[in-house]
């Protein structure tokens, strides 16, 4: 494909590295490697992680869907006009749902020859969130007509796009830079991996300490399994991340006999070594997930087995593999029991665990950024043909 000038449009900041930020930066690096000229038209960003970042608004921090995001409340209209006049964008790639304050203005002001693509990332957790999405869809109805092609990162995100904006399109998953993860893992060396593993069965949790991410469910499962004596001697747990429930989880973990270490925030450079040390990397999210990038990071980094809460986003990412999924809704005690028994099987049924790990590694390439970028380039080609 000939070199394009591409602008990723995103209402939030690039000062943090959450899922959507990870999506556009991973994809943007690959597109740049292919010779495209990539810009980032984003909300308030003080420390840009890459070049060609255009900070075009003032943002305020809000909570939605169990996440924190920074939404634009004031845009620099003159800067938007100047940028669109100075740079001819072949493609504007909008991250959706989007705000009429920033992304909506950029879409409305785009050159008529610019192809516009929108990628939907979100899954709702209840009626209130869905109503908010429908209201936002109504506010964006005019600008949404200007979009040439729609992408959703998963079936649940596609459902959200259809319900809130009447938008239909193709499903292209979130990208993971497998080569980069392997490089980071090798850079830390086997010594760090073995330090985490400590020569004994190792369970790893990585995520925010908020209710829907399920850290407390994992601790419930450890309590139940320990009371039944189903974990092998020496089993230990590492939990990484921050959030409002961190102290409560530390108190709960203090009731266990098995050691549980809380690392707090872990850098992107250190993440692959931690995940590689896991006999079981566990992500018990109860919902609100449109995809499961962290699952793929665990697999790519070398976790022996990756287990996930059975929510629609995680289920689609793991290709409906029942062995990798455990229940997270309904009876919490039953969910804890199921997770504990699944963890015990990882340790006591090595043939089953080996086969599960092999299945997970086998499908990893479908999410590799090199494969995803091929599909995205084809959508760009279609959008340009529409123009």
UniProtKB/TrEMBL annotation:
Record keywords, A-Z: Glycosyltransferase, Transferase
Gene3D superfamilies, per database record: Glycogen Phosphorylase B (3.40.50.2000)
Domain Glycosyltransferase subfamily 4-like N-terminal per the UniProt entry, residue ranges: 18-179
InterPro entries to which the protein is assigned, alphabetical: Glyco_trans_1, Glyco_trans_4-like_N, Glycosyltransferase_grp1
Gene Ontology biological-process entries: carbohydrate derivative biosynthetic process
Superkingdom, taxonomy of origin: Bacteria
UniProt domain Glycosyl transferase family: residue ranges: 199-336
Gene Ontology molecular function: glycosyltransferase activity
The protein's name in its UniProt record: Phosphatidyl-myo-inositol alpha-mannosyltransferase
